[in-house]
Amino acid sequence: AISKLIDQYQIPTGGSSNFVLQWAGGQQQFAHAEKTKAASDYETAAQTLLQAVRSPDAKTLAGPAARCRYTLGWCFFRLSRFEEAAREFGNAFPALNEGKDQLAVEAAWMAIAASRTLSDSQPRFVTNANDAHRRLQQHFPEHRYTQRAGYELTKLLEKTDPETMIKQLESVTPGNENY
After folding, report:
1. Measured distance CA(179)–CA(172) in Å, rounded
2. Count of alpha carbons within 13 Å of 67, Cβ hemisphere only?
3. Burial class of 68 by CB neighbour count within 10 A (0 to 12, 13 to 18, 19+)
4. What is the DSSP letter of 143?
5. How crowded is the C-beta side of 47, counted as CA atoms within 13 Å?
6. What is the pLDDT of residue 2?
7. How far is residue 107's CA from residue 111's CA, in Å, rounded to a whole number?
């Protein structure tokens, strides 16, 4: 599968940062972690994938770097590190969507899932879930995840304290896209 992606995105396999090798290694480690379900295996995969997305080549290979971030998001999600998972899924979305990658809708959905999990204890993450839902509505209006996310968001908003919501709304600055 990785060789298909190397061909599809015309990824140079040489290079000083070894992005491709780190990404491929991280993918293999993640696959292993999915079999063992061991936190230490997810942590190992996450560290390798973090090295890959931080490498210089990742900046020039937007599509592959977004796929790498998507898998990194899953590592963090499996480790119950939901804030990092939401961030990585959210960061993966634009390049995946721009490249018409099927994982774009999955990345947006998982950003909602991670934010929703956090919102129970940290109401500020309701805004993150809402932003991810807006991306789904804009780019995938007919997808089943969009409708399901709307339902989940409605349930989330119903149990959010009105005073907390008012404070969150007041904190949105005029330059913010959510204003």
Report:
1. 6
2. 20
3. buried
4. S
5. 5
6. 65
7. 6
